[in-house]
């Protein structure tokens, strides 16, 4: 996948992702600030607008850097900052490559998750987005068939979301709830799962390609 193809894929995905904004906002209202839906909506549109300004010959790293800047500037939320940092970390593993393959996607996914872990001082089990990101990254690494890789990542992320429901939140505003957070679905982990599902849905024939 070259930079232009990556840009189109991201734009297609981000036309679907905001459909989950209300769900994510409701989940975040129960555990956090309640602004995740707004972050998703504003960020997705900002990224699409930024990508439309990129020249077709842009490299994959340049595409991701544009996404990171646009998403961070769209709103001042903690999630926006963490996502932007994760995208920057992932882009570094691609360097100046003209195109990306499955192995490079594996490295990107892991670097992005590790960035959020380090910057957010969190890990799997803290009831955060990482409960979906790390399992998905591992599934990508372990699955050889290209056609099955995304499905494997989605399944792993979904298991992470389900498992994390019974955990106590240990980071961010959600941690203030202490044991009252047990049984509630983490909005960050859910957002990552919905992003993967949006990526898959945007590749179906019923979805018109972004031109």
Task: Give a brief outline of the structure.
By secondary structure, this protein is mainly alpha-helical. It contains nine helices and no strands.
Protein traits:
single chain; 211 residues; mainly alpha; Serine Threonine Protein Phosphatase 5, Tetratricopeptide repeat; 9 helices; disordered C terminus
Explain how this protein is built:
By secondary structure, this protein is an all-alpha fold. It has a single domain (3-201), classed as Serine Threonine Protein Phosphatase 5, Tetratricopeptide repeat (Alpha Horseshoe). Helices cover 65% and strands 0% of the residues. It starts with a helix and ends in a 10-residue tail after the last helix.
| CATH C-level class | Mainly Alpha
**Element string (H = helix, E = strand):** HHHHHHHHH
Q: Care to count the β-strands?
A: 0
Could you tell me the CATH topology label: Serine Threonine Protein Phosphatase 5, Tetratricopeptide repeat
Please describe the topology of this protein.
Layout: H1 3-16, H2 21-31, H3 36-52, H4 60-74, H5 78-92, H6 102-119, H7 130-142, H8 146-164, H9 187-201
Helix pairs in contact: 1-3, 1-4, 1-9, 2-3, 2-9, 3-4, 4-5, 5-6, 6-7, 7-8, 7-9, 8-9
